[in-house]
Amino acid sequence: NRPLELGERPRLLRPRPTDLGAGETLVFLHQLAPTEPPAPDSVSLGTVELRYRDPSTRKRHRVVVPIPPAHETFAQASSDFRLSAAAGGFGLLLARSLHAIGLDWALVESIALPREASENSPSRSELLDLIRRARSFDGHVVDEAEE
User: Fold this and answer.
1) At residue 27, does pLDDT exceed 70?
2) Sign of the CA dihedral running 73, 79, 80, 86
3) Phi and psi dihedrals of 41, rounded to 5?
4) What torsion do the CA atoms of 73, 85, 107, 97 make, to the nearest 10 degrees?
5) Cα–Cα distance between 93 and 91 in angstroms, integer?
6) Cβ–Cβ under 8 Å, residues 5 and 11
7) Are 31 and 8 in contact (CB under 8 A)?
8) Which residues neighbour 56 within 8 Å (Cβ) at sequence distance 6 or greater?
9) Three-state DSSP class for residue 3
10) Cβ-count burial 3-29 (b if 16+ within 10 Å, e if not)
11) pLDDT tens column, 105-143
12) 139 in the Ramachandran plot: left (φ > 0), alpha (ψ -120 to 50) or beta?
């Protein structure tokens, strides 16, 4: 068994490379299912392997980063992580996914809300607007005459 690459689903999707420029950030949410529990004395839950090519030298590099055990609560998560989680929850609710157990529009909206003024952004405002619109339509079926 080979490990799955980011964004890859077994035999369904081929991984697609993502190009990021200097100073750009990628927040990636993924559910991990370890094949075996970590050892009690382990300082890592696993590893993430990153590969990149230096644009100036075209030389390939490989970096292996350990995944430390999480000691934070969701309330302590970064603003970007919370916004990404809210966007994921929005998608699950919109699709009426079976995986949206425990989620509702109010919870997703509360996750998306900025904790302080500096966290406001056009992306956050747009997501909040979409959440509120979807919440107002929830349970209302639009027929062809209304479109």
Assistant:
1) no
2) positive
3) -95, 10
4) -130
5) 5
6) no
7) no
8) none
9) coil
10) eeeeeeeeeeeeeeeeeeeeeeeeeee
11) 999 999 999 888 888 888 899 999 999 999 888 765 545
12) left
